[in-house]
Write the structure tokens for this entry.
Amino acid sequence: MTDPTPPTPTRFWLPLLSRQAQYVLSTDHYPWSEICADLEARPLLSAVLEARQQSAGGQGFAGQTRRGRLFWNAGVALGGFDQGRDLNMSEFMRAFPRATLQLQLVDPAVVSLAWQCRGAQPEALSEPWPEVQGALSRSAFAGALMGGVGGASISYWQSGKPVAGTLPTGGLVYTVSAPQQLSAGALAGFWSQIYVLAGAQAAGLAEAWRACAGELADDHPCLDPFAREVWLEGQQVQVAPDIDVTELRGALRAVSDASLRRLKLRIRSLPVTELQNSPLWTISGAGELP
């Protein structure tokens, strides 16, 4: 059963900074079953599948082209949407039975942020660029920053720092904000879940973590055990209430990477499927680990 009636086009379509399209094809010639099989054969796929379909109204029908996107990050399907609502994979296929599809490879950080921003609209900032950069850093801004005529420059930001794209040269800028901002508690809770999974597969996690933290303290001062800013109790990360979140993110990513290597574990070998569906998979830097 198909769903041919296009919803009201209210969504803002964020530019994706995609690389060259992997393919452009029509479901009239390649059924969804073949497309799904191809996608499943790409285990670490970070990409967006964009669909466009003519409505049943024919030429001249208002809103005649239906548009949608499906997102994957590191092989995990995050979900999809059309102009008006979020869609799971089955709903997406029903909504686009006769569509032109384009698969675009996209950086994992951009995929995650664009997915989080799917319901947001651009907002003009009160200060121009570059004066507003300090405020974006202090607020640990996460999302997209657009500037220039028609949003000619776009950059994606995480934890108050640009992670991809091109910064504006000056003038009025707009933000499209991700609803989930980075927090120390969220980071500590996320990595604690990783440590529980790692501890179930190898003994000595706490000892490895503390040894690596001491070795990394010169580069990440919050890991210094005498500073008492970040420490481990069992397999749970504890943090001081006034810790700098950006510093914490880098420190936990580094000590987690070193600890897992010492235990001869790979994060992707752990049962992390549910965690990969979380925005924190990218926000925390876990998706950057081997």
Notes: The longest helix spans residues 245-262.
